[in-house]
Amino acid sequence: MPLIPSGLLQGRDRLALLRNAALFVPAYMALDWASYIYPLGPFYITPWNPQPALAVVLVMLGGSTNFIAVFAAIVLADLAIRGAPVGYAISIAGSLLLALGYSGIALALRRLVRDTGLRVLHDLAIFTVVVALGTAVVGLAYMGLLQATDQLAGTSFLRGWVRFWIGDLVGIVVTAPLLLAAADAGRRQMLLAMVRSPEAWLQVAMLVAMVWTMFAMYRENAARLFYLLFIPLIWTSLRWGMPGAIVAATIAQVGVLAGMESRSTILPILELQALVAAFTITGLFLGVTLDERRASDERLRQSLRLAAAGEMAGAIAHELNQPLTALAAYGESAQKLLDTGGDPALTREVLQKMLQDVKRTGEVTRRLRELFRSGTTQLEPVAASELLATARRIGENVIRAAPVRLEIGNGDGLPALYIDRVQVELVLRNLLANSVESLQASKTPDPVVRVALEALPPEMMLLSVSDNGPGISAAMRSRLFQPFATGKAVGMGMGLAVSRAIAEAHGGSLDAADGPHAVFRLVLPCLPSA
Amino acid sequence: MPSERLTVYIIDDDPSVRDSLSLRLGIDGYRTALFADAEAFLAALEPGWAGCVVADLKLPGSSGLELQHELQRRGVRMPVVIITAHGDIDSARAAFQAKAIDFLPKPFETAQLLEAVHAAFEREDRRLQGEEARRDEHSRLARLTAREREVLDRVAEGLHAKEIAAALGISPRTVEVHKARIMEKLDARNVAELVRFVVRGSGAPES
Questions:
Q1: Interface predicted TM-score (ipTM) over 0.90
Q2: Is residue A261 included in any domain, yes or no?
Q3: Quick check: B24 and A330 CB within 8 A?
Q4: Residues A119-139: what's their mean pLDDT?
Q5: Residues near A124 by beta carbon (within 8 Å), at least 6 away in sequence
Q6: Cβ contact, residue pair A490, B63, below 8 Å
Q7: CA of A120 to nearest chain B CA: how many angstroms apart?
Q8: How far is the C-alpha of A209 from the C-alpha of A216, rounded, in Å?
Q9: pLDDT tens, residue by residue, A212-251
Q10: Are A336 and B27 an interchain contact pair (Cβ–Cβ within 8 Å)?
Q11: Where is the domain boundary, A139, A159, A183?
């Protein structure tokens, strides 16, 4: 083992640290400079303090080795922006205290938060509590240092502490989620999607209008109309989840600061900032709740999609087993015929039949390959008439010798569908088999199954499968689409749940209409009609 | 060669499966009849049919299991072999509970099916022989006169000629004559065989 001093880092790590520091220190100083407004005396204490968010996120994502950069940035900022008004010794001591405090908050978060994207309620709750408690403790220590060194000069300790606390809390709570989202690939995607969405711009415009109204209506007490901001906040958070809340909070914060700057009169700055903190926390919790719900919806859809794949694999295995059974029997027959000197013409005929079944097997494996091309829905244009022809083929296949009439609608003049052929065939097979089975079970006289296709402009198509059987009871209809609901002795009872999952994976739907007879309505996307 | 009077009834919705199994069984001398679903088979079914039913589990319309139950309900005693491409434990259990002779998941080796059909035919043969024997005994019993039947019943109860004579109010000598005629008509060699006839013949013959 080569002796490497344990404190030394690998070259690459050191380089990353230097790069982080080179970006972080100027950014920290710039933010400190920009937010050095309405200070309490000559101190670091301001009602908006976003730069600790930078420090917290750097240490949270980069680890404790970034402490040096944090400390350096705080010292340099105090020197450059405020000229170390309390003297170098106390300035450095204060900076060390702040650097330790912010790093402490960051390390606590690094330890307790599972996903830095703050995607679940648990993570967001921990983030909020740690930041709220952490900034209170840091503020207490900082004020303690100022008091111990007799620097407060008439400012009340309590007032200074509350101001420090609100400033840091609102700074971190508004800015850190934004930075964390920017560092997270999934969140970045969502933020980019928002930039491209007209709805998001409308939401931003509404927020800006509300902030403007707030300051324009009550020059002296803008906080009176602050509640107006909650309307666009709720809209944005419910629409976009956490990223929406982050954007809304950022705009509200910037708007409040701009409003304050534009007024010469003294505003209740602290009150406004406390409101911004509450506003932001509300929005974040609303957003994360929506995120969690969406994630669990997605998981369910995913598992249904897997079930669909499983069901399809089962169907395909079944179709492989049929020709394999036939091949085995034909093969043995041919062997026997050869062994016993049977008629060569008969042997040739058997071999011919075997080749046909081999072809059929190949057809099934081709479909299997199509099914697992990518494991997901693969949309392609399918002509309406082609889909109806497929429905006829499947219908005839399902009906076989049963005395059920099949009526297939006309696809003339309809646009092409945009669907996954294999998956939609599975749904069709399911629906047609259901109809035929219920007609046979109910012994309906003159049984008919109808398949019809109609356009639902602009981009959807309705495929209905109906029969003249006894229909679906209200009790059955309510649990028809749940997995394992089945009226059949054979089968897994997954058919309709899987069919609906497939329809939804297409951006469509599948439901059973009310009425005396069974009508299943499958909505699928189509190409815009020419 | 399998028995001439037995047939393998193959019920499967897949034409290739039907055709190939029929061919393979045919090569071994089995007679086969093919149906695409349970309904077609039940519609054609006649009381005299004997042999073995080879039914797919999943058929359009009634399933193989439902067919099994329908056959039992109709008192058809042909053994049933269930074949299926969805071989799950539940349906295998259900098939065996309904007295299937075998349950073969597709794809199976034809030898397995031949074995099952062979076993089924042996069972059918035994059943048919038993039925024939019973029918034969019954027809022989039917040849007895009323008086002879009375005498036979008492012989079976273990009465002596004198006791029978007293009970029927005829002479012991006449009883002996009746007994000789009965032995001749039933082709029995001794009293023990006579008794067996009565015990077995008391049930109605099965059709």
A1: no
A2: no
A3: yes
A4: 94
A5: A118, A242, A284, A285, A288
A6: yes
A7: 41
A8: 10
A9: 888 888 777 778 888 999 999 999 999 999 999 999 999 9
A10: yes
A11: A183
Which pLDDT value is given to residue A97?
Answer: 93
Distance from the Cα of B128 to chain A's closest Cα (Å) equals: 29
Domain count, chain A: 3
Alpha-carbon distance of B80 to B127, in angstroms, equals 15
Alpha-carbon gap: A336 to the closest alpha carbon of chain B (Å):
8
Helices assigned H by DSSP within chain B = 15-27, 38-44, 64-73, 89-97, 110-142, 146-157, 161-168, 172-186, 191-201
Q: Indicate the burial class of A270 (C-beta count within 10 angstroms; 0-12, 13-18, 19 or more).
A: middle
Residues in chain B closer than 8 A to A440 (CB atoms): 60-62
CA distance A340 to chain B (A): 10
Residues of A in contact with B86 (CB under 8 A): 314, 318, 490
What residues of chain B lie within 8 A of the CB of A330, using their CB?
Answer: 20, 23-24
**Alpha-carbon span B73 to A280, nearest angstrom:** 73
Would you call B107 an interface residue with chain A, using a CB distance cutoff of 8 Å?
yes
At which of A371, A396, A430 does a domain end? A371
pLDDT confidence of A260, banded at 50, 70, 90? confident
Q: Give the three-state DSSP class for A525.
A: strand
- Best mutation target among B56, B68, B106, B117 (most A Cβ atoms within 10 Å) is B106
Contact B24 A360 (CB under 8 A): no
**B71-80: average pLDDT:** 91
Closest approach of A357 to chain B, Cα-based (Å): 8
Is 3.40.50.2300 the CATH number for B7-133?
A: yes
CB A146 within 8 A of CB A214: no
Residue A277, pLDDT score: 92
How far apart CA A3 and CA A1 sit, in angstroms, is 6
* Chain A interface, Cβ < 8 Å to B: 314, 317-319, 321-330, 332-333, 336-337, 340, 342, 350, 353, 356-357, 360, 398-402, 436, 440, 489-490
Residues A429 and A348 both lie in one domain:
no
Tokens of A196: 């491209």
State the Cα–Cα distance between residues A276 and A270, nearest whole angstrom.
10
DSSP 8-state code for residue A66: G
Q: List CB contacts (< 8 A) between A336 and chain B.
A: 24, 27-28
- Which tokens hold the place of A115? 């996903």
* pLDDT tens, residue by residue, A473-490: 776 766 677 554 444 433
Note the CATH number of domain B143-201.
Answer: 1.10.10.10
Say whether pLDDT at B116 is over 90. yes
Whether A434 contacts A462, CB under 8 Å = no
Residue A424 has pLDDT above 80, yes or no: yes
- pLDDT attached to residue B25: 93
| Residue numbers of the domain that contains A63 | 12-183
The b-or-e profile of B94-113 (16+ CB within 10 A means b, else e) is bbeebebbbbbbbbbebeeb
* Residues of chain B positioned with their CB less than 8 A from the CB of A357: 16, 20
